[in-house]
């Protein structure tokens, strides 16, 4: 990515993929298989008495050994990359795909009660229908969308299938993975094939909403209208989902409303995703909007992270290609007796010279690889603090990392330098704490302080969606002889990844404290102080007055005659 780009890619909608370069079977397998067959046929059909035929045989053996080394190199890189993806991204991918399932399921028509209500209405009207006609009349489209959607509901209504969108009509559509299968996967039992499919869904798919009421649009138009490509579209989708799930004239979504769209276990897990969902057992419109926006941000950041990781793995693969190619060439020269032991000794001495010149560069590259694939302290979109400066990860490369400061200034750090610095990652932190300090005059009555402490505690405990209960309100310190410092220590129900939301919640708490102070008639006043004067020294006005006060008036030049 070019650093001259004016906008952050974390703010831009993800681009739709136009090509696929991954192959199910690596070419190295085909090369080894073909080379083995050629060598066997050559040795079986042709004699090796001729010198030229011996050279050809050696060349074939060199090619076969090179293909085997190339295959081992490819397998090693792919296995290490797969293990890295599983350990670093599997949990985030699983959560993101479940969020996608929730959004698409809740935006579609209900699954479990519409059919029974329609049948009951027709039966109450006195109309009788044959059994086979009822099945046709009340059959609901279980797909929930057009062929371009990423979710397909199974005919039994109990499972949903997640797959990547098929942008190439000539390519066979991937069968995807069911949501029930996704629930059963973990880091221990997920295969490399399934992990590859999950990564494809994240990288090449997007959050979408399902609307079966749109009629007369093509598949391409339907995909463009239902895909969530920005935070504004995420807010609009949240509003539609809330209106689709909540009962008429209801301000909240309850567990019974969710169970019209999904199973009970899925509904309970969905309820736990929202602010105050577990404590209040309901979902407000604001909570729905915040959750959909956060799901969109998480999906976009995860897609960018997987893209950057794939680019880094490809660059690492190219570096290994160069090393393996050099090994194959040296092996070929030795096997063909082109270079002798003396020449090999001379080449080794030259390698020492090259290592002396480029040793520091190789060391930095190795440290960058260790930092990126072994330590891996952050991903794209994580808020980090380095040297006291808070920044958001914008782009990760194999040698450098690009950060965005609070004013969107881009800062590029070499990875080998980041290896030596402590990195504070807010995204990976658990629910974090916060605190404010309040100052009172020492003459404030103790009864008022007790009431203030109780009201602050009551306010925090009533905001269950924002704070954990039982905050600490303690007398922290005294300032001189006229001021008391009272500290309020409390814990958010989130970390500080969304720093704006943290300051909004903290501001609401401070506003409530100010309101309590005014109601308790506690304001900033300069209290009178007693000043005791024991003695007053006698002043000599001749010494303290200006000299001009005691001097005679100047002569004005006029003569005064006294009669």
Automatic annotation (TrEMBL):
Residues 142-168 have a biased composition (Polar residues). Keywords: Ion channel, Ion transport, Membrane, Transmembrane, Transmembrane helix, Transport. It is a multi-pass membrane protein. It holds the Pfam family MS_channel_2nd. It is found in: Membrane. One of its GO terms (cellular component) is plasma membrane. It comes from the Eukaryota. PANTHER family: EF-HAND DOMAIN-CONTAINING PROTEIN, MECHANOSENSITIVE ION CHANNEL PROTEIN 5. This is Mechanosensitive ion channel MscS domain-containing protein. The lineage of its organism: Eukaryota, Viridiplantae, Streptophyta, Embryophyta, Tracheophyta.
